[in-house]
Amino acid sequence: MKNFVVVLLASAAYLAVAVPMQEEPLQRGEYPRYMDIPDDEGNLHKVDLEAEPDYDLLDKVNRNNANQYFLFTRRNARASQTLVMNNANSITNSNFNANNPTVVIVHGWLSTRNTEPNPTIRNAFLNKADVNIISVDWSYLSRSDYTTAVRGVPGVGRAVGQFLTFLNQATGAAFSNMHLAGFSLGAHVVGNAGRELGGRVARITGLDPAGPLWNTNSNRLRPGDGVYVEAIHTDGSTSGLGIGSAIARTDFFPNGGNSQPGCSTSLCNHNRAWELFAATVTYNHLVGTQCNNMAQVTANTCRGGRLNMGNDNLRKTGSGIYRLNTARRYPY
How far apart are CA 152 and CA 245, in angstroms? Predict the structure, then answer.
């Protein structure tokens, strides 16, 4: 018990160190200044990519870790249990099992833990295996304007990484048994979380990582953020919501990565990333062919090796860019 208290005090001291907020300008890259970006219900929001972020809100976020963490297991697949940073009782009194794999899911802009992709990915994993699912809710910031949310992503990610450090110290749950999956802005959140942990988590999956304000952003998802880092690109056109270029260790471009069969909107293309991922957790059936360059991805002329996209394999390995073609409907 004494050693446990010492560990918690050390963790609290570590978290008390203020991390300065990065002030480098946000670059629009190839995107227009004004974009219509949909929320998870398809409602369009006009976004000014050069708008001044809400620095008062960002300062509050930087000083106060406001992320919330909600646990689902097979014992409580429908009703979550709340895990609280630096509160060991919230962990020990929950259904968290340090011997099981832990999957962390992070939502995107204007979303919450209750919106997609959380329910679909959670159910896919729990139907497949006995795992700990932790849904991260950062809606206190994700529901702000887009430029403010983008600016706050690194701090949100660092806080997730610090929470996982606390989880490891409190329970012994190994980083080598953790898989972080984030959608859109959430993809960059899990990248920053993995970076906070020194790239020690077993897997990171970026689901159509957000594109606007991220093409030249040094805080985006990177290949070294985890032992294996994968990105699935589904809406990467110049007017799309995702990044259209390779940014991870392994990058998959279903149907070329810009538009998806059966989709007529950018939101549909964007959401297809988590839909495909959830399907692969269940069936592990979508296999990419390695490409030498993006021209081959676009032309569908890739002839390299084969690698399964997505799935729940914590020991997955591979690198490079891959193209695959899918069907219009589940399981694709």
Answer: 23
Residue 110 contacts residue 186 (beta carbons within 8 Å): no
Count other C-beta atoms under 10 Å from residue 30's C-beta: 12
Q: Which domains does the chain have, with CATH numbers?
A: 29-324 (3.40.50.1820)
Is 139 an active-site residue? no
Whether 233 is a known active-site residue: answer: no
Q: What is the pLDDT of residues 258-305, one digit of tens each?
A: 999 999 999 999 999 999 999 999 999 999 999 999 999 999 999 999
Single out the catalytic residue among 40, 54, 137, 208: 208
Strands (E), 53-177: 68-72, 81-83, 102-106, 132-137
- Is-catalytic flag, 270? yes
The string of pLDDT tens digits covering residues 223-269 is: 999 999 999 999 999 889 999 999 999 999 999 999 999 999 999 99
Closest to 8 in 3D by CA, of 149, 162, 217: 162
Given 184, 188, 233, 266, the catalytic residue = 184
Catalytically annotated residue among 107, 179, 188, 270: 270
DSSP letters, 226-292, are SSEEEEE-S--STTSSB--S--SSEEEEETTSS--TT--SHHHHHHHHHHHHHHHHHH---EEEEES
